[in-house]
Amino acid sequence: MAEAVTEGGAASVDSVSGAMAYLQNGKSADPLNLGDLDLTTDEFILDEVDIHIQANLEDDLVKEALKTGVDLRQYSKQVETELQRIEQASIKDYIKESQNIASLHNQITACDSILERMEGMLSSFQSDLSSISSEIQTLQQQSVSMNMRLKNRQAVRSQLSQLVDELVVPSTMISVILDSPVTEQEFLEQLHELNNKINFAKELSFRETLACSDIQDIVDRLKIKAVSKIREFILQKIYSFRKPMTNYQIPQNTLLKYRFFYQFLLANERTVAKEIRDEYVDTMSKIYFSYFKSYSGRLLKVQYEDVADKDDLMGVEDTAKKDILLKHP
């Protein structure tokens, strides 16, 4: 109601108050000044005034005032006086709290500057985060690519590692093949490894692998040295059969223990294997021939149980002479 009085509804309130006073007292509270009215105004302005008056009359406070017969001008003066009093009190409170308000203003200014700096820091942090995000994405892509390359290298490594292990000729093998006696267990183990490398080198040569040429010369030299030592060892054992009164079963068992030597010769040097076989067959055939010849000669000597001596008489029937081959048990 105070806003309606103070913001431009004074003319309407005066008109309504005068009408109310006229209706209540039978006369106008203030003489109406009809000279200020413009009777030639357009109907649009009159309609707008009527709408404004009708809106004020529909107000709850106006309705209550019209019902109770309150003087609206007096009520507006009371409201205006109350507003002035509240305004003065507010001014006094503001003056009283001026220092606190100034301090609050300073604090707000400081907070504003701090917030401004924080905004700058957050903006910088946001830009850093965006750059970090792009870097993380790049690193993720690189990680995926490196993981793929790692898997490919591991797959290749499993095949290359076997190839390299087969191609490498360790120094232990070289020293054992060259210096160790053939009767040593270590020589037999390294001979197995050398045989595997020889077979692997042959397989690579069929595939035309260039890495085969790196070890072919070393493997061939070791093969020649091993064949030479094995040939000498086996021939010595075979020649030992020829000694008189030799138990040939002992060197035969020794050769049986090192039967891989002949397998190695048969796989890598067939001429030497044939030489050793022929020498063994010739030696054993001579040994068995001598044994059977001696055995058959001794059998001929024991054909008769009793042999004639100087005490036997001529013309006497020799009943004691018997054929041992025809004798039945």
UniProtKB/TrEMBL annotation:
Gene Ontology biological-process entries: endocytic recycling; Golgi to vacuole transport; lysosomal transport; protein transport; retrograde transport, endosome to Golgi
Start and end residues of each Vps52 coiled-coil domain: 93-265
InterPro entries membership: Vps52, Vps52_C, Vps52_CC
Subcellular compartments: Golgi apparatus, trans-Golgi network
Extent of the signal sequence: none
The keyword Lipoprotein is assigned to this record: no
Coiled-coil regions listed: none
Family matches, as Pfam families: Vps52_C, Vps52_CC
One Gene Ontology term of the molecular function aspect: syntaxin binding
Keywords of this entry: Golgi apparatus, Protein transport, Transport
Domain (Vps52 C-terminal) ranges: 282-324
Membrane-crossing segments per the record: none
Chief place where the protein resides: Golgi
Any one Gene Ontology cellular component term annotated for this protein: GARP complex
Entry similarity comment: Belongs to the VPS52 family.
Protein name: Vacuolar protein sorting-associated protein 52 homolog
Species this protein is from: Triplophysa rosa (Cave loach)
